[in-house]
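Request: Show me your protein:
***
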Amino acid sequence: MGNPHAQAPLWGIPGSPGNRWHAVRSILGIPGTELTMNAPDTSRPQRILVVDDNRDGADTLAMLLEFLNYEVRTAYDGQQAVEQAAAFAPDLVILDINMPVMDGYEAAKTLRGGEHGRARMVLVALTAVATPEAKDKAMQAGFDIYLRKPVDGGELTGLLDRILH
């Protein structure tokens, strides 16, 4: 009997963060990024790094994600995010923009610069700054997705399901 999930109607992301990037580009409607339908990789929990200088917010989101069976780490500024990402190798980073030490824009640029030869991680901006200019700046810094605080829990979990599973 074959894998019952072999034709799962979700993302063709069997363990390849490069394929996750392909999936994100498809969500955004970028031409030539049609998705393939394969079973998700269940060999390990998907890794998420949550970064926010609001410790309570970061820790609460991390607890929610752990409850949903993700492997989660937290950081409280951009410099910690870069350090944690190097050690943890997350599949996805949820990153605030306005933080001390190193802001989210600079952290995103640094994270993108350190991907040489490694799988591309998905970068999600989660911020209270909701201007078109801030969104453009985030995309230019290397973010894949831009979400405004407070984010709806269903929206976030649906997004994670589509990208990571």
About this structure: The CA atoms of residues 91 and 121 lie 5 Å apart. The mean pLDDT is 78.
